[in-house]
Structure formats: C-alpha cells, structure tokens
Amino acid sequence: MILKKVAFSILLFISLSHYSQLSGNAFLFGQTNHSGIKAKFISTGGTAVTDSAYTTSLGSYSINITGGAYKVEFSKTGYLNFNYNNNATVILTNTVTLSNATLSLGTPVSISGGSVSGSWTSNNTYIITGNITIPFGQTLTIQPGTTIRFDGNYSVTANGSLIANGNEWNPIRFTSNFISPGPGNWREIDVNGNGSVFNYCIFEYCTFGLNISNCSPVVTNNEFRNFNGIAILASGCKSLISKNWIHDYKSDDYAQGITYDYTDSIIVECNKIHDGGGYGIRPYGGGIVRNNIIYNIKSPARGYAMGCGAGTKALIKNNYMHDCNSGFWIYENVTPIPHPYIVNNTISNMLYTGIEMNGFYASADIVNNIFSNCNIGIYQSAPSCTPMCTTTPSVVSNNLMWNNFGGNYQGVQVIGIGVIVSTNAQGNPVDSYFNMSQDPLFIGGNPPYLTSGSPCLNAGNTFYSSNIGFDSTSICDVQVINVKDVETKTTQVKIFPNPSNGSFTIVFNSVVLNGELVLVNALGQIVLSQVLSQGNNSIYAFELPEGLYNYILLSNKQKIASGKLFSQV
Predict the structure, then answer these.
(1) Closest CA to 402 of 356, 466, 336, 446
(2) Among 129, 172, 165, 170, which residue's Cα sits nearest to residue 147?
(3) Alpha-carbon distances of 125 from 103, 174, 176, 403, rounded to whole Å
(4) Which residues contact 48 (CB under 8 A, 6 or more apart)?
(5) Cβ–Cβ under 8 Å, residues 233 and 217
(6) Whole-model pTM?
(7) Which residues contact 228 (CB under 8 A, 6 or more apart)?
(8) 21 has which bridge partners?
(9) Residue 407 phi, psi dihedral angles, 5° rounding
(10) Is the pLDDT of residue 6 over 60?
(11) N or C: where does the chain have the smaller number of CB atoms within 10 Å of the terminal CB?
C-alpha cells in the first residue's frame, strides 16, 4: 500500500513537471481596454499541445499548457498579428512570464512587389515584401495615419507620383516590420517622377529615407530617425526641403542628414538635425542653406555639422551649429572659384574646429560669423599642391572670435589675419578685415541670443547683414508634436508688450475651451505652458532667457493662433 502511494506521488510529480504555467501582458496600441487579444501557443512538435488564452481589459493573460516547443502569436481583428520572439520557436517549461506584446492598428495588406498605384488607406497596414514601383504617369496616394512596414531590404521606386501628405495629428509612417527593428532594415524611397509630396511623414529604420533624382518633390515637416545612411539625398532637384526633424543616426562615419548635388536652385531651411554620425548637411553645387539648427554630430572620424565638397558654391547663411566635432569641413574645390559663402552663422562648442579647410583649392568667403568656445576657430591645412594652386580663403572678414582655447586662426593664409590694427565704427578693436576677438555677450553667456549691448550688432558686412552671427528673428515657425492645427479666422489675439520685459498680457475675444498658451524656443523646445481663461491673461516669464520665442494658443489641444514674441529681460 505504501509502495502504491509512493508510485502515485512520483507519477503526479512527473505529470505536473510537464506543464508550463504561463502569464504575460498584451496591449492594443493607443487603447485603454486591451481585452480580447488571443494569445495562441502553437505546437512545433514533440510533447507540446496547441492551446490559447485571451487577455483581460488590463491586457493580462495566463494559461497552463503542456511543456514543450512553441511558437507564440497574438492576434485580434482590426490589428496586426504580433509574433513573439521574431516568430522563432521558444521552449516553455515550468513557470514562465513572457515579455509584453503590443499590437498595431490595421488590417494587414501584403504587397509582394511589382507595380502599384491608387490609394492606400489608414484602416490598413501595408506590409512590403518585395521591391515596388509606381509607373510613369500613375499616382499612389497614401492617406494620413497610414503605416507602411517593410519586411526586408526593399525599396519603393516612384517613377510616377507618390502623394504622402499626412498631418501632425495623423502622420504617415514608413517603418520596419521586424519585431526588434534597427537601422538598415529596409532600403529607401527612390523618387524620380514629378508631383510627389512628403509632408508629416515618419521615416525610421531605413538606410536612405528619400533618394530624389532630377525632380522636385515637396519635402516638409517630416521626421527621419534611426537610419544608417542618408535621410534625404537629392540630386538635380529644385526642391524646398524645410522643417524636417532628423536625429539619431550615429552608427556610421558617413551617415548624413541632408545631402544634395548638381543643382543651383535647392533651398534647405529650418531643419533641426542632431545626434548624428558623419554630417548634418552636405551641400554640393549651389542653392541656399539657411536657418537650420544642427548639434551633437559626432563620429570617430568625422562629425561635421556641414561638409562642403568639390564645386560647392552654396550660400550657407544664418545657421546655428554647436557641440559637434567640427562646424564646417571645406575640401577639394575644383578651383578657388566657385566656393561656398559662409555668412552669419553662429558656431560654438566644437571639439575641434569651427571651420576646417583642407585640400586643393579649399576656399570660402567667411563673413559675419561668430566662433565661440571651439578648439580652433578657423583651421587651414598648409598648401600641399604645386604653385599653380592655392588654399587661401577668398574672404575672411567681419567675424567675431571668442574663447577658442586652441587659437582663433591656425594656418590661415591671409596676411595680418587676427592682428588688431584699428577700431570699427562702434569703437571695438578689429584687424585689417574687421574681424574682432572679444566677448559676444550672449544672453546668460550661452549662444545664440545676443544682448542689446553685444559688439556683434551693427558690426557686420552690410552686403549680407548689419549684424554678426545667427539672427534669431529669422527662425522658421516650429512644429508642436501632437497638436492639431485648425485654421480659425474668428479668433483675434493681442499680446503686449512685444518685445516683453519678462511679463506680458494675452487677450482674445472668442470662446476658447480648455485654453492653453505654449512658448517654444529656437531649438523647438517647449519652455512654458500655462492654462488660459477668456479675456486678459497675465503671463510671467522672468526666468526665461532673452530671445525670440514662438507662442501657440490652443483650444482643446487644437492650435487656433500663433505668432512670435521677443523677450527682453
């Protein structure tokens, strides 16, 4: 009898040891009720037995199954299936808590390759499993809020038109279909035909975002992130590339934010580029590069905010660059002319140089710039070519150098550069080319805003500007994430005094529900948010640095008015 009890206990123990007690959580993206998600455990052979469980409203589930080898799949109608562990088999024994799973909205539509056109809608998620092409003369329109997932190193080639016109409330998302996504999971969108639009789109986990050739699409208000090549590569284009946010691409010395060539008509303005690898912006040819903010571009071998190569003759004006390895790299121009015109930029806190000129005929007009807190302000390599060529800059004038601890100029082949010989009209010491070396008097000691007593004011080459350095009043309007823009002509807003002395009053005449004021600085950061009531509202902002701010008036999180406010504390 005792032996039978012992045998029964052993069998019971063996039986229980074959069961796995599983629990975990699965969620519906953007929802608060997560019930009804099916967690299916699919046997891949052996002792495993297929079984399933469903989530509660909080997203939790639990189940006892026979121990063994399984694939785990989460699903719910209207959402994309989520395959656990990249759809690889897992061994489930004993007590196991699985990692969280999140299901994205949309019915999956597989696009296996070939020609596409027509309309893609936000109630579907499009899974790209092969290279696809929009033929000449045809159009593919993607609705706001649509997600496109690439299941491998595939591309979209737009020989016709690709209209991806999202909005800030419902962006269009081009992304990876990998469960654990990373840079380079998919290739690029190759744009060759006229009439394309990319507005409020997100590009992530690609090699190249947009590769544009000999056409001029609209490229505005997009976000590019977690890529390992170039966010926007434009060749032979006349596009306006504006108000894009490009960030987190540190993985490669040659990774770049924006690069263009073979054009004299392109405008690259008002983009924010940061946390990158090789370059922020790399212009070749002509065009205008203005009002961009670039910072934290660093890699072991490069890390330039901008790189100007052979034949660059762009006007590079009014950009603020800081905390990179170097500001500019100018190299290998075909001849001393054409060359880039580097005007009214503020370049600060560079690990190495503000501007580095290196190579045959490396030259530039360098006018009205501020170089502060760099290792070296302007560096020029010694001539290494025959007497038939030169690396002498064309013009270095009306610049201000300050606190460049390795020197303001090193190797610059301009006779008398940096040697004080006179004073300018404001009575400040200058060299023969009206370059200064004194404190620019940034507000609070930090760039880019200047105090009213700065020596940079009225000291510039007036052909370009009466002042030296970055002009904050030229900053383009910034975008506020997750705020829907609604055009309202009936709301009349008054804000005074403007300029402000640290306090100001806002008055509006219409009913504003859940009113809120948002102040945004030049870097696109929200620095003040205050609830408003109808009528007069007093705002106190004495703690904010002097400078230019964008104000945005919201009603129920919808923008109904905006403008600019200059604070003079």
Answers:
(1) 446
(2) 172
(3) 12, 10, 12, 54
(4) 41, 65, 66, 67, 68, 69, 70, 92
(5) no
(6) 0.76
(7) 183, 184, 207, 249, 251, 252, 255
(8) 64, 95
(9) 125, 150
(10) no
(11) N
Question: Considering Cα of 504, then 510, then 511, then 514, what sign does the dihedral take?
Answer: negative
Interval 379-397 mean pLDDT: 69
Q: Which of 445, 437, 423 is nearest to 468 (CA)?
A: 437
CA distance 475 to 547: 11
Strands (E), 298-399: 304-308, 315-317, 320-322, 326-330, 341-343, 346-348, 353-357, 365-367, 370-372, 376-380, 395-397
Alpha carbons 139 and 37: distance in angstroms, whole number = 37
Amino acid 197: pLDDT? 96
Instruction: State pLDDT tens for residues 436-477.
Output: 999 999 988 889 989 989 999 999 999 999 999 999 777 665
Question: Measured between alpha carbons, how far is 208 from 231 in angstroms, rounded to an integer?
Answer: 5
Q: Which residues contact 366 (CB under 8 A, 6 or more apart)?
A: 342, 355, 378, 393, 395, 396, 397, 399
Show Cβ contacts of residue 22 under 8 Å, excluding neighbours closer than 6 positions. Answer: 41, 53, 62, 63, 64, 65, 92, 96, 97, 98
Of 360, 361, 369, residue with least CA distance to 328? 369
Q: Choose among 111, 191, 207, 203: nearest CA to 158.
A: 191
- The dihedrals phi and psi of 10, each to the nearest 5 degrees, come to -65, -45
CB-CB neighbours of 132 under 10 Å: 19
**Are the C-beta atoms of residues 202 and 180 closer than 8 Å to each other?**
no
CA distance 412 to 503: 47
Token duo for residue 166: 């999202």
Query: pLDDT per residue over 174-216, tens digit each?
Result: 999 998 899 999 999 999 999 999 999 999 999 999 999 999 9
Give SS3 for 252: coil
Kindly state the tokens that stand for 537: 């509202």
Q: What is the largest CA-CA distance in the chain?
A: 114
* Distance (Å) of CA 69 to CA 17, 19, 180: 15, 12, 21
Enter the tokens of residue 432: 């023969």
Pairing of strands 353-357, 376-380: parallel
